[in-house]
Amino acid sequence: MGVLDGKVVLVTGAARGIGKECAVLAAREGAKVVINDLGGSVAGGDAGDASPAQEVADEIKAAGGEAVANSDSVSDRKGADHMVQQAMDEFGGLNVVINPAGILRDKMFHKMDDEDWDAVINVHLNGAYNVARASINHFREQEDGAYVLFTSTSGIIGNIGQANYAAAKMGVAGLSRIIAMEGAMKNVRSNIIAPFAWTRMIATIPVKDEASAQRVDRMKNAMRADQVAQLAIGLSAPSDVSGQIFVARGNEIFLMSQPRPLRGMTRLEGWSPETLLSHGFPAMKQDMLDLGNTGSVFTWEPI
């Protein structure tokens, strides 16, 4: 008996890294799995290859599970529709969408090309929209469904050189929150994970000094994709957890705060630019985010 017995799960980006570990674990926990992966490069933009997704599907079937491969792109709305339809055709339904598919095109913002911005937004933010929009009505009609979407500490905390990625991942956080709020009456849940794990995406980040090299070694050994998958599958199983942001780092799981008012100030005669500068902003200064210490306990470049 597994926590996903009788469920049908769609996992995007499932040929490698976190996606693959989620797919394999979902099958081990009793789910029938649609293995989606375009089979493209880390930077995206290439034609892709259907064989990596098929290899994972074959691996699951060889272990006694049920799986089917899909090589559509999450950035294509018709492709997302096809993924959902394939789950219906092959397995008779769909209960869970796990969406770690992604690319990276890191660059300082003042040097960023429109193409790099658009590509990352299309895969991460539009990709999350596409797979959720393709499945939401089915979930609402059957009054059962779970989304496990993926954000990043690049968005919720910050990381230099990843403005495109951070913007997309903060968008995913907002999307997940609204899906959870709107889906509550229909038993449709949505949560997001910011993962720390060694993957081929992380491997593209340059190692510039000895300190970075040591962090790489620690991550390879202690922060694995299969550890993130445990949380993803836990959030896929029936529960009352929804609308939350989690960080998975090795064997640690963090529940993250979400934006709420920190401090309010009232001026009966109203504010002006001058009074804001002389009184308002200085009074709030102690509660403002310190950009020099945004990493908190998270000190590794995020996925």
Describe the structure.
It is a single chain. This protein has 303 residues and is α/β, with parallel strands linked by helices. The chain contains 9 helices and 8 strands. It has an 8-stranded mixed β-sheet with strand order 3-2-1-4-5-6-7-8, with helices on both faces. Helix 1 crosses helix 8, helix 3 runs parallel beside helix 4 (114-142) and helix 4 (114-142) packs parallel to helix 6 (163-183). It starts with 7 loop residues before the first strand and ends in a 19-residue tail after the last helix. 45% of the residues are buried.
Helix and strand topology:
Blueprint lengths: L7 E4 L5 H12 L3 E5 L14 H12 L3 E5 L6 H15 L4 E4 L14 H29 L2 E6 L2 H4 L6 H21 L4 E9 L13 H13 L2 H12 L8 E5 L2 E4 L17 H12 L19
Parallel strand pairs: 1-2, 1-4, 2-3, 4-5, 5-6, 6-7
Antiparallel strand pairs: 7-8
